[in-house]
């Protein structure tokens, strides 16, 4: 009989793979596939054609539609420059917490999902259960859509998805959508004493950033819709978190690069925000080209994540509330893969162990009590699918 690892042992193994988004996740996926195979569970993959990354999905129970899907991502954010007190890729227990990169976001849940799938296999279930593990969630949820598409002809269609992002085991039923653009300003270098004859890419880019500030001010001042008022903040936000460019302080900058990101409340059209940004880009570009015609602004879409729309008595929400006893209303402003599953026809909810406040932090941790509570709720989920 092959070893049946505990949720903690599975989390510990997964965290030992340093699957930072810029690196491959194939060794982790290979291990998961081998572990499932040792328990008689066939897994399937989506293989990214452009980079060494795989997604994995698997099914146990009756070969029919209506499965509960447990969804997680396998990538984690970098630890570079963070002041960790322990090895981030080894789980360390201390002061009632498990420390390690991914304990909270979200290999703790991934371990629980694998454990649940294997236990379901041995229990003999009347309702099918699936897992779906993606890649590149941390760089814009770009790995889930092709994985979801690849699942459709291979597995019976699931009816609901529980996305295990850290929510302290609360039922999160809505999140903002997001869209982001890499923006490259290409200016023209001259000595700063004759700046009127050149085009300073940084100063031109500042016009786009100031436009974002103006939009944030207008959005903040506007009365939110009933749906938007469920979010904090209750309006669409525009943000630039990094910027680079320039050669020297006395030369007009030839290049300037930054990312313009939008977090859009449900009910607003994120494509309309994209159109508005591109309109402003072309306006600034026209100003640049009136001085030096060969200057330009290059725009590349970096991510496009749909909002998770609150469902009216959604199947996924109903199940999670039954299991956790949580009947409060929870909405979040970050994006997840839940909206992508919802767009593909699944009822979706976010519910996972740990706090989002710990995600991406140095010395990331999950409370041991929270992890154990999640294991108890997962056991209740087993009772649910055994009786259906």
Short recap of the structure:
The chain has 388 residues and is of the alpha/beta class. 32% of the residues lie in helices and 22% in strands.
Question: What would the keywords be for this entry?
Answer:
single chain; 388 residues; alpha/beta; 6-stranded mixed sheet; 5-stranded antiparallel sheet; 9 helices; 16 strands; 32% helix; 22% strand; elongated
Could you characterize the architecture of this molecule?
- The chain is α/β, with parallel strands linked by helices and 388 residues long.
- It is 32% helix and 22% strand.
- The strands form 4 sheets. It has a 6-stranded mixed sheet with strand order 1-2-6-3-7-15. Strands 9, 10, 11, 12 and 13 form a 5-stranded antiparallel sheet that branches.
- Helix 3 packs parallel to helix 9 and helix 5 runs antiparallel to helix 6.
- The chain starts with 6 loop residues before the first helix and ends with a helix.
